Amino acid sequence: MREFPQDFLWGASLSAHQSEGAYDLDGKGLSVQDTRPRDKHDICDFKVASDHYHHYKEDIALLAEMGLKVFRFSIAWTRIFPDGTRKVNQVGVDHYNDVINTCLQHGIQPIITLYHFDLPQTLEDLGGWSSKETVQAYEQYCRFVFKEYGDRVKYWLTINEPNIMLLVDKKILGKEIPLKAKYQQFHHLMIAEKLAIKACHELIDGGKIGPTPNISIVYPATSKPKDNQAALYFNSIRNWLYLDFSVRGIYNPVAKDYLVRQGVMPEVSEADKALMKEHIPDFVAVNYYSSVTVEFPENADDMMNGISDQQSEDIMERGFYKGFTNPFLEKNEFNWTIDPLGLQNTLQHIDDRYQIPMIITENGLGAYDVLTDSGRIHDPYRIDYLQKHLQACKDAIAAGVKLIGYSPWSAIDLVSVHEGISKRYGFIYIDRDEQDVRELKRYRKDSFYWYQQVIDTNGSE
Ligand code: BGP
Q: Which regions span the lipid bilayer (predicted)?
């Protein structure tokens, strides 16, 4: 059967700090995203972003017009707890109540990410994810949010891309974390995730929760056994370390070998071990953009050789693998490989490892879109990308994968992590550029009408 199930969750995604703006309004505290310097000077910060904070009613109405069944957004932790813990900001709580209710009035189910790169700055100042206090604060925040919104929200995501957040630390967090500290932070993040799963299952009747790693399947550059070994290590360090912890409650053995050899294996208490095993997610949310190819580094200092995945280029580990430009894959304008079959491979690989339902919570094409004088945005390149990836989803479903939904990145244009607002992903164009905010008027792109048709025909078009 090459069709999508009747109850397939058609969606679109965004995150709070990349879209909301209003970074210091109505009692919101600062997050590490508000304070970090942007690495390129000509790209905008997150202060205004797409001003979704003031435009959410209009935005959700447009998403409803497109036919969405689900809308993935994140809660800014610092709107609820400005200092990360203790004192609640009621204006922030009310804001998300309103966002949720607006979605429901339009027949859209929210899928809420609890934390998307925007740790409260106050917690960061106290040691961030290196400190167990942050784990406790996150649990307290999750419990509060579940009690507040759990009567209306069924789908939850724990932590967006802990693998990318830590492995690409400089680009996401604006600072480099020493390897030892990085993996202790990894352990704390993953324990925090377990506590969120536990709390969700305790507090929300019928609540479903899952991890949200960024998965890029890793190919070996050649059939040389050493290249295969390099791919085995990179797959384990980049992908399976995170999912094995979430779904199987273990440290992935290959990644563990790497951690031990580097002398950076985190401390794991007996209490942690019990927690790891017990709280298993209901589904895995997959963020997928491209695949990665690696070879064995003959020279121990070699790290990369034009690696084509911007999300992986900084996470080459000396001596274990080195980036390789795959000659069989096209790339987008930002040097990311385009590999729809890689998505099918990824979904089948996850299914093979874990036999768990999946939902795609990010997939999309960043591009320089042009607003024409007649107010149109012609983005056939995006339609082509999404069409091919949807075909890959269909093929994966036909091969037995339990894929319950597809929520591409992004619902509306927002500020890209790597490139500012010029790199656009949305179905809905926001009229602003890097420094000139203008009126932030919304325009439907060609891909908006295309996706509307996809949803209307349940993926047949
Ligand atoms: C993912 C993040 C998103 C989003 C996306 C695209 O890693 O979860 O927040 O930004 O990548 O990346 P970029 O914005 O750099 O193009």
A: none
Q: Where exactly are the structural domains of the chain?
A: 9-214+344-456
- Per-residue pLDDT reduced to its tens digit, 232-243: 999 999 999 999
| Ligand 1 binding pocket mutation candidate from 46, 215, 313, 409 (most atoms within 8 A of CB) | 409
Judge if the beta carbon of residue 29 lies within 6 A of ligand 1. Answer: no
pLDDT tens column, 354-412 = 999 999 999 999 999 999 999 999 999 999 999 999 999 999 999 999 999 999 999 99
Tell me the C-alpha distance between 47 and 36, whole Å.
11
Paired residues of 12 in beta bridges:
71
Please tell me the distance between residue 442's alpha carbon and the centre of ligand 1 in angstroms.
21
Read off the pLDDT band of 1 (50, 70, 90).
Answer: very low
Which position among 362, 419, 434, 439 bears the catalytic label?
Answer: 362
pLDDT at site 312: 61
Where in 256-371 does DSSP place strands (E)? 284-287, 292-295, 322-323, 330-331, 337-338, 358-362
Looking at residue 2, its pLDDT comes to 67
* Closest ligand 1 atom number to CA of residue 15: 9
- CA–chain centroid gap for 184, Å, is 21
Give the model confidence (pLDDT) of 187-199 as tens digits. 999 999 999 999 9
Q: Give me the DSSP letters along 40-105.
A: STTS--SSSTT-HHHHHHHHHHHHHHHT-SEEEEE--HHHHSTTSSSS--HHHHHHHHHHHHHHHH
Select 9-214+344-456's CATH number: 3.20.20.80, 3.40.50.2000, 3.30.470.20, 3.30.1360.70: 3.20.20.80
Six token digits for residue 323: 């980036």
CA 458 to chain centroid: 24
Ligand 1 pocket check for 426: Cβ under 6 Å? no
CA distances from 18 to 29, 33, 118, 416 (A): 16, 9, 10, 7
List the one residue out of 48, 39, 153, 27 whose CA is nearest residue 94.
Answer: 27
Distance between Cα 138 and ligand 1 center (Å): 22
Beta carbon of 49 within 6 Å of any ligand 1 atom = no
Indicate if 65 belongs to the active site: no
| 287 CB within 6 A, ligand 1 | yes
d(CA 186, ligand 1 centre) in Å: 19
User: What letters, b where the CB count within 10 A reaches 16 and e where it falls short, cover 98-112?
Assistant: ebbebbeebebbbbb
